[in-house]
Amino acid sequence: MIFYFAIPLTLLLYWLTRQLYRFKPWPFINPVLLPMFVIMAVIVLSGSALQDYQAGAHPIHLLLEPAVVALAIPLYQQIGQIRARLKPILLGCSLSVLISVGLTLITCSLVPTAPEIVSSIATRSITTPLAMSVSSSLGGVAAIAAAIVVLVGILGAVIGFPLLRLFRVTDPQAQGLAIGACSHAVGTAAAAERGTTQGAFSSLAMVVCGVLTAILAPVLFALYHWISQHL
Known about the structure:
InterPro entries: CidB/LrgB. The chain is built from 13 helices and no strands. By secondary structure, the chain is mostly helical.
């Protein structure tokens, strides 16, 4: 039954969440977070299969790739600003990747963790397809990597801008880079709602960090395993 209601339910929940956010602009009123919990509850309480919902909502899923490509529009609009700040952008994204993957490896070395779990969560800050691919190449579980990425994206979209305000990061370019580097596509969607500049720089950080993670993560993992064997 949920097959036939998948698209109407998804669109209705998205619209209701957007309306609620306009009335009460609280960070946790997120068009991904709240509909996700409601849909999960509907699937469980109705005894439906997740596969039925996925099949019914497949047309929406097909729009995901064009939506991601459309993020290049604000990127193109800010191309002059990006060229002028290319070096600090690359430096910031590189540090973001090193910190993200490095902290994961350090934390997992302190707490006994299965190697496949380490590989699955180390790519948490890049977009889902890249995270699944990089994680699998490192011996991780793609499904776990995808779940962690979604959770991190939602968390960044919810608390990212409040944290930036708390630390008095007010420059829209810096805000966009921070959100895109940590919260990939979900965070970028939230950044785009804040402004064209935030959306453009978040898109840029998402792409650059994805590429850098694919390059640097295997090197960091090799170093991690070498150190583990010699200590």
